[in-house]
């Protein structure tokens, strides 16, 4: 249900995520054994759009258990830092880094609220600030997020965001064909659903979550206002999960509408850079 932002939104969300960390770590969805054996979890469009990370420093905001973060290290990043507000998630990420033989200098993980990232991370700026795939919906204040994220982009570096398109949350859940919810709503969405996307049948206690919808224009404008130059905004006709029953899974693991259905954007990506002299 929609409601004004509750005072305990952060505590409720943290309790929910903390409880789900061990469920995710044990799930087939994340398949940590396959990851440790070499499976790359990054999406093809992200790899193409971010480009070569060899020798660069990368900060991953809202990293969860660190699989994406560590995948960038595998692709040659000189240093990766993952940040998440869930301490259990950070502990799992640190364990995975150790299992991969990565030193703390090469792959560090820090527990912190994303709004406090500038004070929590080991360095003041990074070549690449990376975030997305279900991150912004947990934050009530996008301009504040953009200011923090932009402050951590080194001159000549860039922020890269890959996120689920907010249009998908406006359509009916059954068919994905009818506009049902307000695209421009600023209210919080409070939910009490048990389980998790990695295991819908998991027994869970901390089920309350508080989320927000952020129009794409708000996100892009916030990054520009924070001093970054928008290099591109790309919209993608695929999702990472079966958002609607009609979606068809493709060989690359993405989900799309059948060929006889009109397409809509289900994800988007943004690259925003800081000039070398900035």
Automatic annotation (TrEMBL):
Enzyme Commission identifier(s): 2.1.1.-
Top-level taxonomic group: Bacteria
Keywords: Methyltransferase, Transferase
Organism of derivation: Streptomyces silvae
SUPFAM superfamilies hit by this protein: S-adenosyl-L-methionine-dependent methyltransferases
One GO process term, biological-process aspect: methylation
Pfam families from the UniProt entry: Methyltransf_25
Methyltransferase domain segment(s): 59-157
Top-level EC class as recorded in UniProt: transferase
Name assigned to this protein: Class I SAM-dependent methyltransferase
GO molecular function: methyltransferase activity
Keyword Transferase: yes
């Amino acid at each position: 249900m929609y409601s004004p932002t509750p005072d305990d939104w952060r505590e409720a969300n943290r309790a929910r995520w903390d409880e789900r960390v061990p469920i995710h770590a044990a799930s087939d969805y994340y398949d940590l054994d396959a990851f440790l054996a070499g499976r790359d979890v990054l999406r093809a469009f992200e790899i193409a759009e971010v480009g070569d990370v060899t020798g660069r420093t990368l900060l991953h905001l809202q990293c969860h258990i660190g699989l994406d973060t560590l995948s960038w290290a595998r692709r040659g990043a000189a240093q990766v830092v993952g940040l998440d507000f869930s301490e259990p998630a950070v502990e799992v990420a640190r364990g995975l880094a150790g299992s991969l033989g990565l030193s703390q200098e090469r792959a560090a993980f820090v527990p912190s609220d994303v709004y406090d990232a500038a004070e929590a991370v080991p360095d003041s700026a990074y070549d690449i600030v990376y975030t997305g795939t279900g991150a912004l919906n947990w934050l009530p204040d996008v301009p504040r997020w953009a200011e923090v994220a932009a402050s951590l982009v080194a001159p000549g570096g860039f922020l890269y965001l890959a996120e689920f398109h907010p249009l998908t949350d406006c359509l009916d859940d059954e068919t994905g064909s009818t506009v049902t919810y307000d695209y421009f709503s600023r209210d919080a969405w409070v939910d009490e659903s048990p389980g998790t996307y990695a295991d819908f049948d998991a027994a869970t206690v901390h089920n309350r979550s508080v989320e927000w919808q952020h129009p794409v224009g708000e996100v892009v404008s916030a990054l520009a206002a924070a001093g970054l130059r928008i290099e591109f905004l790309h919209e993608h006709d695929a999702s990472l999960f079966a958002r609607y029953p009609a979606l068809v899974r493709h060989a690359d693991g993405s989900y799309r509408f059948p060929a006889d259905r009109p397409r809509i954007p289900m994800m988007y990506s943004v690259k925003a850079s800081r000039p070398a002299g900035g």
